[in-house]
Amino acid sequence: MTPPARGAPLVSLRGVAKSFDGGLEVLRALDLDVYPGETVTLLGPSGCGKSTALRLLAGLTRPTRGEILWADPARRERLGFVFQDATLLPWLDVFANVYLPLRLAGVSRAPAAPRVEEALELVGLSGFRDALPRELSGGMKMRCAIARALVTRPALLLMDEPFAALDEVTRIKLNNELLALKARLDTTIVFVTHSVGESVYLSTRIVVLAANGGEIVDQIPVDPGMTRDGEYRLGPVFSQLSRRASNALRRAMGEDEP
Q1: What are the backbone dihedrals phi and psi of residue 193, each rounded to the nearest 5 degrees, phi first?
Q2: Going residue by residue through the chain (258 aa), what tens digit of pLDDT does each one get?
Q3: Same domain, 138 and 228
Q4: Looking at the structure, do residues 223 and 109 belong to the same domain, yes or no?
């Protein structure tokens, strides 16, 4: 059952299937609505189609069957994508890496500069605008990648396990920073993770996908008004939601619940 949401969806997937060469069917018939202002996390085992769903939303690949419907087609052109690897160009400094999407869109450097500086300020990298990627820590590289995605002022931010390769302390810190960005910008986010804890901490809705076809096993609403902090991580609501998500993940992998 789809949790109640306010207004019309920003984007909807209807009966979306995706097969690759050799006949491998990653998604079979995915129906999913993403509403404005949500943080929807796709949680599931490897191979369930989480990253494929993001690439379909981004237009990086096309569905084999089904359709992707945008309430406002113009918003389809306003997407930001953050990959698991920061994918920074090593010969460009931080400013130039963040400026790159605007440069590719034909915006010259001078009029783009305020937007680049704003994006750097949002992620706390204003003091590192001239640094090269090799001079940045792993967390700073990911902040730069997030700034690059935000510089276009996207209507939808797609994030494919962006913190998976980071140590736990840095990961928690960047989780908190993402929540602060979300509150400041009211951006709609679709986030992919393998981490139950991360999904419960960041989401307003967790969508658990099954292996072998990406069937939705459960959709778990998370109160967007709750304060997300260390106390929340240790509290009963976090524990209850984590248990429900963990049990859904077991079903997604074909295992019995304890």
Answers
A1: -155, 160
A2: 344 446 789 999 999 999 887 767 889 889 999 999 999 999 998 888 899 999 999 989 999 999 999 988 777 778 999 998 999 999 999 999 999 999 999 999 999 999 999 999 999 999 999 999 999 999 999 999 999 999 999 989 999 999 988 999 999 999 999 999 998 888 899 999 999 999 999 999 999 999 888 889 999 999 999 999 999 999 999 999 999 999 999 988 877 665
A3: no
A4: no
**Claim to verify: residue 140 and residue 174 sit in the same structural domain:** no
Give the global pTM.
0.92
Q: Do both 74 and 104 map to the same domain?
A: no
- Count of domains observed in the chain: 2
Cβ atoms within 10 Å of 173's Cβ, excluding its own: 14
Could you tell me the residue range of the domain that residue 47 belongs to?
11-78+154-252
Residues in CB range of 189: below 8 A, 6 or more apart = 38, 39, 40, 156, 157, 158, 159, 178, 182
